[in-house]
Design a protein that fits this description.
The complex is a heterodimer of chains A (about 325) and B (about 120).
Chain A lengths: L1 H13 L5 H23 L5 H11 L2 H8 L11 H29 L1 H6 L3 H38 L18 H18 L5 H4 L3 H4 L6 H30 L5 H24 L1 H12 L4 H40 L1
Chain B lengths: L2 H23 L4 E2 H10 L6 H13 L3 E8 L2 E8 L1 H32 L1
Antiparallel strand pairs in B: 1-3, 2-3
The chains are: A mainly alpha (about 325), B alpha+beta (about 120).
Chain lengths: ~325, ~120
C-alpha cells in the first residue's frame, strides 16, 4: 500500500487546500475498493507491479488533480481569434520592419556587418527577442484582463448588430484617401523640386543657416533627383486615377508596388555608402560634440533614421501590394 | 474517417450523456466506486477522473446530496439525488426522449434518402 500512499500524497500536492482532505479520502476509497475487488478475483494480494499498473492506468497525479480543478485560461476561445490577430499585427507593424532594417544594415552596410559578426550578431537579435517577448507578454496581459470583462459583458448580452463594422471592399480605394494621396504627393514633389524648404516652414532658418550641408542628403539628392521626382509624380498620377476610378486594377497596384520597391533600394544604397558618416553622426550626437557640430550630428543621424523609416514603410507597402495582387488571382 | 476521429466523436457523444446517466443511477443512494461499477455494467463506463469531478460539480449545483458514512469499517461518501436533482432529472429525461425521437426520425430520413 506504500505505492498508493505515495500516489495519494502526490495528488494531494496539486489540489486546492479546501478540497485536499475530501478529494483524497474519496480517491483513496476508490483505489482501495478497486484493489480489493481485483484481489478477490485473483484470490491473492496484488503485488507492487500490479498496483503500479493500476495506478498508472488512472493517470499521473498531476492529471488526476487537474480534473478536480476548475477550467482556467488566460485568453478564452471567444477572444482568441482577436488575440491572434493583434499578435500578427504587432509582428507585421513592428517586429518585421525591425528585422528588415536589421537585415538591410547587415546586407548594405559593410561597417555594420563587420562590427556584428559572431556573438555580436546575437546581441542585435537579442534586442529583437526581448522586444518581441515584452510585446507578447503585454498583449497577453491586456487580453487576460479583457477576458474577465468580456465574460461579464457576454453574460449581459451587451452587443448590438447595428454597431458591427461595414464590409470593407479591399479592391476599392476611398475617394478621400485618393485626394489626400494626391495633395501629399504634390506637396512632396514641389518640396523635392526646391519649391520650399522645411527650415523655412518651421522657422528654423537662422538656426540651421550656418550649419554645413548634410553630405548624406546632398548625395541622396544628386544621385536620385530625377528618379525620385518621376516616382513621386507617378504616385500622384496613380492617386488621380484612383480618384476617377476607385476600383483598383492589378496594373495600378503593380505600378505602386514597383514605386514602393524602388525607394528602399535607393535609400539603402545611399545609407550603405555613408555608413561611416552615420556612425560619426551617432558618435557626435552621443559623445563630446557641442554647439553647431552637435546640431549637425543630430540632424544627420535623424536624417538617416528618417530615410530608414521611409524605406521600411515603402517595403511594407510594396509587400501589401504584392499580396493584394496574389489575392486578386485567388478571386 | 480515421479511428481517432471516430473515437473523438464517440467520446463527445457519450460525454453529453454521462450526467444524465449519473443522475439516473443516483435515484438510489450509492458511493463512487459502486456507482462506477453500476454504470460500467450497464455499458456506460466512466473513468474515475471524469466521474468524481462530475459528482462534485453536480453537488455544488445542488443536484446531489452526499454524506460520509462508515461501511465495512471504511468511510465512504454516499451520493443521492436532491429534490432539485429529481426535478432536473425529470426534465432531462423528457429532453432525452425528444432528442432520441428527433434523431431517430432524422436518421430514418437520411437512410431513406441515401438508398
Amino acid at each position: 500500500m506504500d505505492l498508493v500512499e505515495r500516489y495519494l500524497n502526490a495528488v494531494r500536492f496539486w489540489l486546492p487546500k479546501a478540497q485536499k482532505t475530501d478529494v483524497i479520502a474519496e480517491l483513496a476509497e476508490d483505489i482501495r475498493s478497486q484493489i480489493e475487488e481485483r484481489e478477490r478475483e485473483l484470490g491473492r494480494a496484488l503485488n507492487e507491479e500490479e498496483i503500479s499498473a493500476l495506478l498508472k492506468k488512472r493517470g499521473s497525479p498531476f492529471t488526476v488533480a487537474g480534473r478536480f480543478l476548475p477550467q482556467r485560461h488566460l485568453v478564452g476561445p471567444q477572444l482568441y481569434p482577436i488575440y491572434e490577430f493583434v499578435l500578427k499585427l504587432t509582428a507585421g507593424i513592428y517586429l518585421i520592419p525591425w528585422f528588415l532594417v536589421w537585415a538591410g544594415l547587415m546586407i548594405f552596410v559593410p561597417s555594420y556587418r563587420a562590427a556584428h559578426h559572431g556573438a555580436a550578431l546575437f546581441e542585435g537579435l537579442g534586442t529583437l527577442w526581448t522586444t518581441a517577448l515584452t510585446m507578447f507578454a503585454m498583449i497577453t496581459l491586456g487580453f487576460a484582463v479583457g477576458e474577465r470583462f468580456q465574460r461579464q459583458s457576454a453574460a449581459r448580452g451587451d452587443w448590438n448588430p447595428r454597431r458591427l463594422p461595414a464590409v470593407r471592399n479591399v479592391l476599392r480605394v476611398s475617394r478621400g484617401s485618393s485626394l489626400v494621396d494626391i495633395v501629399a504627393n504634390l506637396l512632396v514633389l514641389v518640396w523635392w523640386l526646391g519649391g520650399f524648404s522645411f527650415s523655412v516652414v518651421l522657422s528654423l532658418g537662422d538656426v540651421v543657416k550656418n550649419l554645413p550641408s548634410s553630405v548624406l542628403w546632398l548625395d541622396f539628392q544628386s544621385r536620385y533627383f530625377v528618379p525620385i521626382a518621376v516616382f513621386i509624380a507617378a504616385g500622384a498620377v496613380l492617386a488621380l486615377l484612383n480618384l476617377i476610378r476607385p476600383n483598383l486594377t492589378p496594373l495600378r497596384v503593380g505600378a505602386r508596388a514597383v514605386i514602393d520597391a524602388a525607394m528602399p533600394i535607393m535609400i539603402f544604397l545611399t545609407l550603405g555608402a555613408h555608413a561611416g558618416g552615420i556612425r560619426a553622426a551617432w558618435a557626435g550626437m552621443t559623445g563630446g560634440a557641442t554647439g553647431p557640430a552637435k546640431l549637425a550630428a543630430v540632424r544627420d543621424w535623424s536624417l538617416a533614421v528618417t530615410l530608414g523609416i521611409i524605406a521600411v514603410a515603402c517595403l511594407f507597402s510594396c509587400v501589401r501590394g504584392v499580396l493584394r495582387i496574389k489575392r486578386w488571382r485567388a478571386l | 474517417m480515421t479511428n481517432d476521429q471516430f473515437d473523438n466523436l464517440r467520446l463527445e457523444l457519450r460525454r453529453g450523456c454521462v450526467p444524465l446517466a449519473v443522475l439516473a443511477e443516483l435515484r438510489s443512494e450509492q458511493y463512487g466506486y459502486t456507482l462506477r461499477k453500476a454504470l460500467a455494467e450497464k455499458g456506460m463506463a466512466v473513468d474515475e477522473g471524469t466521474l468524481y469531478p462530475l459528482l462534485r460539480r453536480l453537488e455544488s449545483h445542488g443536484l446531489l446530496v452526499s454524506d460520509w458514512r462508515e461501511e465495512d469499517k471504511r468511510p465512504k461518501r454516499f451520493y443521492h439525488l436532491s429534490s432539485e436533482g429529481q426535478r432536473i432529472f425529470k426534465q432531462l429525461s423528457a429532453e432525452w426522449e425528444t432528442i432520441t425521437a428527433s434523431l431517430n426520425e432524422i436518421m430514418k430520413e437520411s437512410n431513406h434518402g441515401s438508398r
